[in-house]
Design a protein that fits this description.
The chain is of the alpha/beta class. It has 6 helices and 10 strands. The chain has 2 domains: 151 residues, Alpha/beta knot, CATH 3.40.1280.10; 68 residues, tRNA(m1g37)methyltransferase, domain 2 (Trp Operon Repressor, Chain A, Orthogonal Bundle). The protein has a 5-stranded parallel β-sheet with strand order 2-1-6-5-8, sandwiched between helices. A 3-stranded mixed β-sheet has the order 3-4-7, with no helix packed on it. The protein is elongated and about 70 Å long.
């Protein structure tokens, strides 16, 4: 049996990750050994009676800053797999993309997510990470939601998590385009009808319609993605010299 994909998290709120075990196919991936999740609380690695993980910032200012010692000690307690990638959850990081999730799922067998709280990290904690990652241009109270999003996105790409692997091919963002519309029975509901082409049985026509819908939907909803896709398509279609 292939070794489980290892996911390790440093978090001051370890119970936040309990919900992942009941999250449909993600939970089954953990229960069947496709992936394993280990959460480490830096507070458990403190050496004072108050289990202090933060302190006032040098130079003054509001808020508290996470201390390096407990985070380094917690991090260094994690077993190291052959291909490991360490991610720091921070609004200063590069914005998360589907391409990142696929890269981490395909190229590594261990992912470590470091989550912060309070005003921020002592800058030295950043030296532990290979990459800094953000969900977008906004600030949350901690990195747990970002880490859970990454774990969800990576685990669903692992072989065996999704029953039909081909369902991952045409989903949104797999090739910059958004996914096409989906319909199921009944053929008409409150005067809203399923497009005739989807009921035609003509697989070539259905494939063409779906591609057209993907392009149209992306152009309308995410014009910047559509522009990137169009440029990539032009480059791909150019005759090779």
């Amino acid at each position: 049996m292939t070794a489980a994909y290892r996911l390790d998290v440093l978090s001051l709120l370890p119970n936040s990750f309990n919900s992942l075990s009941g999250l449909g196919v993600i939970g089954r991936a953990f229960s069947t050994g496709i992936a394993e999740l280990n959460v480490y609380n830096p507070r458990d690695f403190t050496k004072d009676s108050y289990h202090k993980v933060d302190d006032e910032p040098y130079g003054g200012g509001v808020g508290m800053v996470l201390k390096p010692e407990p985070f380094f000690d917690a991090f260094e307690s994690i077993p190291i797999s052959q291909n490991r990638r360490v991610l720091l959850m921070t609004p200063q990081g590069a914005q998360l993309t589907q391409k990142d999730l696929r890269r981490w799922a395909n190229e590594y067998d261990q992912l470590v997510c470091i989550c912060g709280q309070y005003e921020g990290f002592d800058e030295r904690i950043r030296t532990l990470a290979d990459e800094e990652v953000s969900l977008g241009d906004f600030v949350l109270t901690g990195g747990e939601l970002a880490a859970m999003s990454i774990i969800n996105g990576v685990v669903r790409l692992l072989p065996g998590t999704i029953g039909r692997a081909e369902s991952l091919i045409e989903e949104s963002h797999s090739d910059l385009l958004l996914e096409h519309p989906h319909y199921t029975r009944p053929p008409e509901f409150r005067n809203l009808k399923v497009p005739k082409v989807l009921r035609s049985g003509d697989h070539a026509a259905i494939a063409k319609w779906r591609q057209q819908q993907r392009e149209l939907r992306t152009k309308e909803r995410r014009p910047e993605l559509y522009e990137r896709w169009a440029q990539k398509k032009v480059s791909r279609d150019l005759p090779k010299q």
